[in-house]
């Protein structure tokens, strides 16, 4: 459990910093067990921001990285790569969202800062338990089975087939069409449903 954790709190310009006291969050992070380094920075996803992470991993001999910034959907990959470039397993990086789920949903600076601190605290706890992961590749059969021949199933089957893959549609009823076949006409064109 004794790992050297580094915490990087992003300001996202004023996107986060206008509502969350990022300096206070970084200071709080330094008090958490396992944390040996914590800082805030204007744009963590920028090249200098990524360099900050890489350098800190090496200079502070970090074993885990926690980034508090935007949604992982935006930059999880960026920070995994920066973590790997610093010499760690890419999965030794934990990310928390203090933007979409925090600074963007309140104007209350006190509460937003408190929430960011709580999120960072949880991420640090998890980081202490993280283990390195390896990416593996497994062979797959490029064929799809769709269960249910309703409208959604038929459309999915057509889309996959147009992508050049064989599709098998499984339907429990005697015919395909699902609920649509039980209707007479459909709004707004009043076309015959069948
Ligand atoms: S990492 Fe996310 S929160 Fe930080 S500057 Fe980039 S987009 Fe903004």
How do the helices and strands line up, and which of them pair or pack?
Blueprint: E1 5-10, H1 22-29, E2 35-41, H2 47-59, E3 64-69, H3 72-85, E4 93-97, H4 99-103, H5 109-127, E5 143-147, H6 151-162, E6 166-170, E7 185-186, E8 191-192
Parallel strand pairs: 1-2, 1-3, 3-4, 5-6
Antiparallel strand pairs: 7-8
Bound molecules: iron/sulfur cluster.
Structure, explained:
Strand 3, helix 3 and strand 4 form a beta-alpha-beta unit. The chain has six helices and eight strands, in the order βαβαβαβααβαβββ. It is 37% helix and 20% strand. The protein has 194 residues and is α/β, with parallel strands linked by helices. Helix 2 crosses helix 3. The chain has two domains: 123 residues, Rossmann fold; 50 residues, no CATH class. The longest helix is centred in the middle third of the chain and has 19 residues. Bound molecules: iron/sulfur cluster. Iron/sulfur cluster (SF4) binds next to helix 3.
Low-confidence stretches: none
Domain unit count: 2
Question: How much helicity do the residues have?
Answer: 25-40%
Outline the biggest β-sheet.
4 strands, parallel
The fraction of residues assigned to DSSP E strands is: 15-25%
* CATH class designation of the largest domain: Alpha Beta
Q: How do the helices and strands follow one another from N- to C-terminus?
A: EHEHEHEHHEHEEE
Radius of gyration: 24 Å
Could you say which small molecules are bound to this protein?
A: iron/sulfur cluster
- How are the strands of the biggest sheet laid out side by side? 2-1-3-4
Give the strand tally.
8
Mean pLDDT: 96
Q: Which structural class do the helices and strands define?
A: alpha/beta
Distance between the termini: 62 Å
| Proper CATH architecture of the largest domain | 3-Layer(aba) Sandwich
**CATH third-tier fold name of the largest domain:** Rossmann fold
Q: What global shape is seen? A: elongated
Number of helices, where a helix is a run of at least 4 consecutive DSSP H or I residues: 6
């Amino acid at each position: 459990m004794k790992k050297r954790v580094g915490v990087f709190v992003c300001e996202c310009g004023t996107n986060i910093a206008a509502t969350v006291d990022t300096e206070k969050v970084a200071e709080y992070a330094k008090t958490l067990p396992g944390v040996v380094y914590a800082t805030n920075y204007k744009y963590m996803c920028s090249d200098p921001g990524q360099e900050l992470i890489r350098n800190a991993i090496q200079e502070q001999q970090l074993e885990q990285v926690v980034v508090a910034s935007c949604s992982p959907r935006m930059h999880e990959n960026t920070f995994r790569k920066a973590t790997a470039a610093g010499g760690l397993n890419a999965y030794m990086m934990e990310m928390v969202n203090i933007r979409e789920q925090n600074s963007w949903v309140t104007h209350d600076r006190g509460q937003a800062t408190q929430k960011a601190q709580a999120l960072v605290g949880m991420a640090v706890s998890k980081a202490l338990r993280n283990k390195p992961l390896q990416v593996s590749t497994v062979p797959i059969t490029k064929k799809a089975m769709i269960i249910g021949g309703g409208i959604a199933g038929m459309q999915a089957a057509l889309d996959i087939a147009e992508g050049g893959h064989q599709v098998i549609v499984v339907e429990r009823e005697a015919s395909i069409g699902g609920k649509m076949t039980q209707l007479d006409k459909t709004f707004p064109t009043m076309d015959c449903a069948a």
